[in-house]
Design goal:
Distance between the termini: 44 Å
Helix content: 40-55%
Mean pLDDT: 85
Structural class: alpha/beta
Number of strands: 5
Number of helices: 11
Order of helices and strands: HHHHHEHEHEHEHHEH
Low-confidence stretches: 5-9, 190-199
Length: about 200
């Protein structure tokens, strides 16, 4: 896996990379791909404390690391994950974006996202439903352990607080993720709510 230039704090450099490499990002959801196409219009968002902290994770991801972006609904986690993913895809081949519930569903259909070679963004961990909690916990335990052991870059977003995460899954999976992934908690209120208030 390649390494990005050591310019983590240079927002302009990131914008230039995103603009010049758009053809690489077709694997992203259209909503976020469109936002990246208009990246200069939302440059202030890239200069937020949350985004700056997220961009600090880029070198680790390019080296096969894992990151968890946590925070309330609408605070920009998924957009940040997509920007990180887009930048990482310039150095890491074969990138995918998948909803957390699809990861569990795939296990019933002989698909194994844990073995995907390349970057994987898992969105909305915690919103998936499983009737057999033991099965769901075992699958996520296997998934995170496999990704970490194989040094495959992984970005996870979740609305869960640390306490909610432990309650939904268990302490072992939480401790494992805290050990093997950079855990970034987004601060601030919902961007969606603030946009509605302006309207």
């Amino acid at each position: 896996m390649g390494q990005p230039p050591d310019r983590r704090g240079e927002i302009v450099t990131h914008i230039e990379i995103l603009k010049s490499q758009l053809r690489r990002f077709k694997w992203l959801p259209e909503r976020y791909l469109q936002a990246i196409r208009e990246i200069e219009m939302i440059q202030p968002g890239l200069e937020s404390d949350n985004m700056r902290a997220a961009l600090e994770l880029l070198p680790g991801l390019c080296a096969g690391g894992m990151a968890v972006l946590a925070g309330p609904i609408g605070c920009g986690k998924t957009f940040a994950a997509c920007v990180l993913g887009a930048l990482t895809s310039c150095y890491v081949p074969d990138c995918k974006f998948v909803q957390a519930r699809a990861v569990l569903k795939a296990s019933f259909e002989n698909q194994d996202y844990a073995k995907h070679r390349g970057l994987l963004i898992v969105d909305d961990l915690g919103r998936e439903h499983f009737t057999d909690k033991g099965f769901g916990i075992a699958e996520w335990d296997y998934f995170f352990d496999s990704r970490y052991s194989a040094m495959q870059p992984t970005i996870v977003t979740t609305n869960l607080t640390e306490e909610e995460f432990v309650e939904k899954y268990n302490r072992r999976i939480f401790d494992r993720l805290k050990e093997c992934a950079k855990w970034l908690v987004f601060s601030g209120s919902s961007l969606r709510k603030r946009e509605e208030e302006r309207i």
